[in-house]
Write a structure and sequence with these properties.
Rossmann fold, 5-stranded mixed sheet
Length: 233
Amino acid sequence: MRTFVATFFAFSDYMRPPVRLAALNKMPSVFVWTHDSVGLGEDGPTHQPVEHLMALRAMPNLAVYRPADGNETTAGWKYALDNTTGPTALVLSRQDLPIVTAANAPGAEKGGYVLADGDDAIVIATGSEVHVALQARSELAKTNIKVRVVSLPCWELFAKQDQAYRDSVLPPAQTSRVSIEAGVTFGWREYIGDRGIAIGIDRYGASAPGEEVLDKLGINVAAVVSAVTKLRG
């Protein structure tokens, strides 16, 4: 038997006591939170999570898994069922997302992996922003800039991997790094360093169609292309 609960991600604010108790007591509960960003659209800023991902990542013994597509979601569910020493949060989008990973998403079981390789810069993304990073990679290739795209669905699981593996995904010598995630940029310095550029949303959302909100708030291909170009300049 395994208990789970599901609701809007913004409502995780109201659930912090039970989530924290599950983490504190090492209970293998599964929290399924959907509508994970401003991409949910017209319900407006009260229902659009912005700071929630980072707040939950700060909770000890809680694994926060934000998959990029159906294949990574499968990997996240497998991890949640294998994880018997603490709760797992599966943070899912409202909007339809393209399949951008291979079947079974090899590497997703380690929390972070190289989705597409390149030597000139690294773009790190989670969830619905992974396909944005891949689109930006294609645009940058037209100017002969070769970008590595790293999908990082679960920070906690990635942190458990040995140093050699983490360095193979994020080579320390490569300091041209950009992160993109539809939430606050707080915390991303751990992966992009002082020189890197974090693309995110350090404000509350707005009421409009989801794709329009994301685009107006700078979660788009143009922002990634601009950031990588700036770092390479």
